[in-house]
Amino acid sequence: MTDIHTQIDTTVKSNDVVLFMKGNVDMPQCGFSGRSVQILQHLGVPFKDVNVLADDAIRQGIKDYTNWPTVPQLYVKGEFVGGADIMMEMFQSGELKQLMADKGVVV
């Protein structure tokens, strides 16, 4: 478990924007992951996608890492932002774009 925690922690901290999702950016495997990818692409934000379906340890590990029960999960500059619903609300209000700007992510 510790190894997975360390692996997730390294991924989150070494990339400006990370989306843990079902599937990948080219082929999301659920509607929530697809919507999350569309939001980030619409904002023009470069991000790392991590397919939780490719590794059961990561699939469970990411839930334990944040104590958040669902995927997708978005991280910006090492900080957990939320899942698909939170991303959608923040996107619609302009808050997500502002967060990216505040964190120094090129938008």
Protein model, in words:
The protein is an alpha+beta fold. The protein has one domain: Glutaredoxin (3-Layer(aba) Sandwich). A four-stranded mixed beta sheet has the order 4-1-5-6, sandwiched between helices. It has a two-stranded antiparallel ribbon with strand order 2-3. Strand 2 and strand 3 form a beta hairpin. The radius of gyration is 13 Å and the shape is globular. The N and C termini lie far apart (35 Å). 30% of the residues are buried. The model has no long low-confidence stretch (mean pLDDT 95).
List its salient traits:
four-stranded mixed sheet; 107 residues; Glutaredoxin; 5 helices; alpha+beta; two-stranded antiparallel sheet; globular
Offer a quick outline of the entry.
The protein is of the alpha+beta class. The chain has helices spanning 2-14, 31-43, 56-66, 84-93, 95-102, and strands at residues 17-21, 23-24, 27-28, 48-51, 73-76, 79-82. A hairpin with a 2-residue loop joins β5 (73-76) and β6.
Number of β-strand runs: 6
- What number of domains? 1
Report the structural category: alpha+beta
User: From the coordinates shown, what is the CATH architecture?
Assistant: 3-Layer(aba) Sandwich
Portion of residues in helices?
A: 40-55%
The CATH fourth-level homologous superfamily: Glutaredoxin
Mean pLDDT: 95
